[in-house]
Structure formats: structure tokens, C-alpha cells
Design goal:
alpha+beta, Aminopeptidase, 13-stranded mixed sheet, globular, GNAT family N-acetyltransferase, Acyl_CoA_acyltransferase, FemAB-like
Length: 397
């Protein structure tokens, strides 16, 4: 069954796609995340965060049969490689050196959101394969150099492999709550080796000794003032690193209005004054066609943080220890720490392999990239094995 068995539509705005049908399809996937919800992608576009003006021109590709949505994804045409977290700058440079244009390229991803999850929404494997076939055909029709599916789920990667796309792997760091789950943060600390346990206790004492306390709020309980303070922290952190913030204030206003249940905010205070904040996303995997959520697979995602005052070790407390303590208290099974960051291992976030898939239209460059990815893949595997030997957890007796 190929893409010709479906009615294929390409829409330039999320408003042209039925939000209920999109979200219902997402709920049946093996690895859904809040970041693939229609409201999240719509907020990216409608807030001015991910638009053609910022180098993210969205195209929603949908497959229908008898008006029923069978498969869907969003492909961004991009004229740069910012905000992706899977780096292909060297590929773009090689194209330029040979007098070829690398941009625009196609990217199947969630803008500025390096969270693994389903990218190709589909009712079954056949529809998923047809969707990827339609994506590739569309990319060829608009003459892009390449297409890249980032932080994809296993089912997506299998479809990509079947379509002869090239696989690439990177490393992230995730925390896992053990079955039946830690009773409290102290029990979690007891799972770690003495050196790392001692280090965490020292870091927490530094923050508490500086007079810093934390409060948290979730969903509709996050006040407008707290959202405003969070954005002040978020924007300041980006600017301190020499970059303007990717996301606009309106994006977070839309999140507060359309997806409040997916957000958890920690605010650090000292002397009655807010001095830092960290924003966490929360979700869960679906149980299947019912669209209900499995409480045994609740997931929290570290997303953004910032501070207006410096306190030693405050970043670790706001971004790791407070969220992990909350996850344990609320029965969350996983905390994903985001892209990069080997330092996360010392906080018991362990290495996991993430995957992306790539298609290049130019045969000679595709061959060269394939050889590069084979070498890089060996290095990633060696790196993972090296990291696994440095586990912060106690060794089994």
C-alpha cells in the first residue's frame, strides 16, 4: 500500500488541520509527548516563535481516507540549522565548498525541543510508510537538498530504515524511577554510590544555607505573575549566552491558556524575593486507542531555567533535585534532562541513545554522509559503553 492510496494534503498553517483528529491520532502512538500536540505546534507558529520569518516554514502533511485522518506530520523548510540539537553544520559547509546549496532543507521535528517521541503519526505501519513516502516525494518536488527526522521514535526509525534513510544517533541523559518506586528523595540517594551521594548533599546544603527556598505550582495554579517572572529568567539566560531567546512571551501565554496541565513551575525565593525559576513539562504515554494515559509511565521533561541572582549550585537544585523530588512524590517514572550534558550523570541521569533519520537528494553526498555516520556511530557506541562504566549508582552486591 503506497501513498497513492490516500488523499494527501499539504497545509501551511496548523489551523488548516483538524486539531481533534490530530490529537486523537497522537494519543494512539507508542511514544507520544505533549510537544506533538496540535496546540503546542500551533503556539510555535502563532506566537511568532517558529515561522518563515525565523527560518521555520511549516508544512503539515496529512494522509486521509474517506476524510478520516490516517497519518500526519509537520515538515519545516529551513534556511539554517539553529534550534535542532542534531548538528549538521559540517554537511552544510561541505555542500557550500562544492558550490551546492544545502539550504533550504526539510526537517521533521518539534522546533527548539530535543525530546524523543513520535514524529510520524499514523494508524498503522502501512500508513506510516506511506506518510514518509509522501514526505520524500514532496521534498523532491520542492527541490530541497535533504530531509531530517529528529529525535524520532522506534516506529519512525523503522519506517525510515525501510525507506533507505540513514540513521544517526546521539546521547541524552534520563533519570528512571525504579519499580516499585522510591519512597522519597533520601531513598533515591541511597541508590547512589557514596561519592555522588555526598556531592548531592553538599550541593543542596549550599543552596539551603544561602537562604533559598522553593515553591512549585502546576497547571492553572501557575499565576500570570509567575509566568512573567519565568520568562524574565528564561530570556536573561539566553542573552547571557549571547543569543536572543527562541521563544516569545506569547508562546508561553498560549501554553498557559491551551495546555496548562502539561506545565510545572519551580520558583526559588530568598528574602521574600523570587530569584530563579525552572519550567518542567509533564506527560504520560498513551494506553492505546482509548487515548487514556497510563499512570505507570508518567514522564517529566526538563525544559527551561533562569536566574536573576547567582547562588552557588542553584542550577542543580532548580533543574534536577527539586524536579526529581517532585517526580518521586508524584509517582513519575522518568525525567528527561534534555540535550547534551554529561554532568547530569552525577545527578543519576543515565545515558540513553536517541535517534534521527536523514535523506539526502544528492547521491554522492548521501554516500559520503553514510560513511561518516558509520564512523560516528561506532564512536557513539564506544562513548555509551564508556559512560555506562561510570555509573553513579551503587554496583550490585
Amino acid at each position: 500500500m503506497g501513498s497513492t492510496d490516500y488523499v494527501i494534503r499539504v497545509s501551511a498553517t496548523p489551523s488548516e488541520v483538524d486539531s481533534r483528529a490530530w490529537d486523537a491520532l497522537l494519543a494512539t502512538q507508542s511514544h507520544p509527548t505533549p510537544f506533538m500536540r496540535h496546540a503546542y505546534l500551533a503556539a510555535m507558529a502563532e506566537s511568532g516563535s517558529a515561522t518563515a520569518a525565523t527560518g521555520w516554514s511549516a508544512h503539515f502533511i496529512t494522509l486521509h481516507r474517506d476524510e478520516a485522518l490516517c497519518a500526519a506530520c509537520v515538515v519545516y523548510l529551513k534556511d539554517h540549522s539553529y534550534g535542532e540539537y542534531v548538528f549538521d553544520w559540517a554537511w552544510a559547509s561541505a555542500y557550500q565548498q562544492h558550490g551546492l546549496e544545502y539550504y533550504p532543507k526539510g526537517v521533521i521535528a518539534v522546533p527548539f525541543t530535543p525530546v524523543p517521541g513520535t514524529r510520524l503519526l499514523a494508524v498503522d505501519a502501512q500508513a506510516r510508510a506511506a506518510l514518509l513516502q509522501a514526505v520524500q516525494a514532496w521534498c523532491e518536488s520542492v527541490n530541497v537538498s535533504s530531509a531530517h527526522m529528529l529525535f524520532a521514535a522506534d516506529a519512525d526509525m523503522q519506517s525510515a530504515k525501510d525507506a533507505a534513510w540513514m540513521a544517526r544517533h546521539t546521547v541524552q541523559f534520563h533519570w528512571h524511577n525504579t519499580t516499585p518506586g522510591y519512597a522519597d528523595f533520601d531513598q533515591f540517594l541511597q541508590s547512589m554510590n557514596q561519592e555522588k551521594r555526598k556531592k548531592i548533599k553538599q550541593e543542596r546544603r549550599k543552596v539551603a544555607g544561602a537562604g533559598v527556598t522553593f515553591r512549585h505550582s502546576q497547571g492553572a495554579d501557575i499565576s500570570a505573575a509567575d509566568w512573567d517572572f519565568f520568562y524574565r529568567c528564561y530570556a536573561r539566560t539566553y542573552r547571557e549566552h549571547g543569543n536572543p531567546p527562541y521563544l516569545t512571551p506569547d508562546f508561553f501565554r498560549r501554553m498557559a491558556a491551551t495546555m496548562p496541565e502539561h506545565w510545572l513551575l519551580f520558583v526559588a525565593e530568598r528574602g521574600g524575593k523570587s530569584i530563579a525559576s525552572s519550567l518542567i513539562a509533564v506527560g504520560a504515554r498513551s494506553t492505546g486507542a482509548t487515548g487514556l494515559f497510563d499512570t505507570e509511565d508518567r514522564v517529566a521533561y526538563g525544559r527551561y531555567w533562569g536566574a536573576v541572582e547567582h547562588v552557588d549550585c542553584l542550577h542543580f537544585e532548580a533543574c534536577y533535585y527539586q524536579p526529581l523530588q517532585w517526580c518521586i512524590a508524584n509517582g513519575y517514572r522518568r525525567f528527561e534532562g534534555g540535550a547534551q550534558g554529561e554532568h547530569k550523570m552525577a545527578r543519576a541521569l543515565l545515558p540513553v541513545k536517541t535517534s534521527s533519520a536523514h535523506w539526502l537528494q544528492h547521491p554522492a553526498f548521501a554516500d559520503a554522509v553514510q560513511r561518516f555516520l558509520e564512523r560516528e556511530g561506532e564512536g557513539i557506541q564506544n562513548y555509551l559503553e564508556h559512560l555506562e562504566q561510570r555509573t553513579p549508582l551503587k554496583k550490585p552486591v
